[in-house]
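Final paragraph of the annual report: two paired records, presented back to back.
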Amino acid sequence: MLLTWLLCKEIPMASLPAQTLFTAEEYITQERKALHKSEYLDGQIFALSGASRVHSLITGDIFNSLYNQLVGSDCEVHSSDMRVRPSPIAYFYPDVVVACGEPRFEDDVYDTLLNPIVIS
């Protein structure tokens, strides 16, 4: 509703509230303590909501299909609980992630994958 109002209303930019930006390090520190997941993009943090039934079913089908095709390979399939960092300014929780070869992680907590080859 606020976005609709902002798009329809002419407001001088100085009237908009200042946005707090966070460093990637601040995000990770906060995220590891948080009860709910959020994503990070270029200083901004976005709370994640739950998925719909249909979304969950589709995600499960994709995960199962990839897992079954990759059994016996050097690839791992991860669910939406695996955070990825595809660039220095972004952290995401994709629905399904595939990493092949030796997985690389951001640090010794092993909760942020750096080398996904498939993100869905």
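The closing record of the year follows.
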Amino acid sequence: MNQVKTESIVAISLMEKLKCYAQILKLKITVFVVISAVFGYFIGAATYNLSEIISLVIGGFLVTGSANTFNQIIERNHDKLMTRTEGRPLPQNKLNVNEVIVFAFLSGIIGITVLWIALNPLSGVLGLLAIFMYAAIYTPLKRISPYAVFVGAFPGAIPPMLGLVASTGSFGFEAGMLFAIQFLWQFPHFWAIAWRLHGQYQKAGFKMLPYDKKNKTSAVIIFISSLLLMLSSYLPEYFNVTGRIATVGLFLLSCLMVFPAFKLMQTQDDKYALRVMLMSYVYLIFSLLFILADKV
């Protein structure tokens, strides 16, 4: 009778297990996402409610952590093939997969429930949509198409919009503007990361742009995507969502990404992809700060 070969789980201490779950949650990224949602709340709120903010932080943290956990469950065998991810808990057999699946479902269910009940149903729906699109659509699509980021940009753009919806209880034009800016931001950010990790992604079977090789065409696409982000700087003011402070701030921040993207297009040098990636993080936080400052 044939026996199924299973990999044994490595024995670890409680503290090590907690560290593993922090990795499974992608703790730093999750905190970053929650901060962007809180900024969205402040942008939309006429008055601030501490219990709502706490509920948003808890619900947002659990929903984001759930999506990240599902992502690592699905990609665990591919993560083994990448230097960047081979040390994660699941590829290292430090956590039981079934245990992590239960954790992912519980985190998602509790997070969505908190957003739905403590804030409003629309916030809960957005939380559910973010998990589903990220885990069930974007994650498997990364191995099929180099343009999977177009799908991933939807759940990636939800957090600030969710924060605003949490404060207003409705989806209006202001929420749409936040979503649009965050949506456009995804492309230069993730394509710059994919450029830097091109060899590792290929080895693991991920068809992220650039897929076949790092070439001028891929660099041009990254430059155009950063240019579109720059051109979007005036949209919030044009539609009377914000004023001149936000416009100038968004424009200057986008310049920080456009210039290295232009140099990447000229040289195809990895260091400029790194600069695009780093400046994208600066853009993410300070763009929300400028919009918030314009609303005060």
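The first helix runs from residue 14 to 24. This concludes the annual technical report; the extension proposal builds directly on these records.
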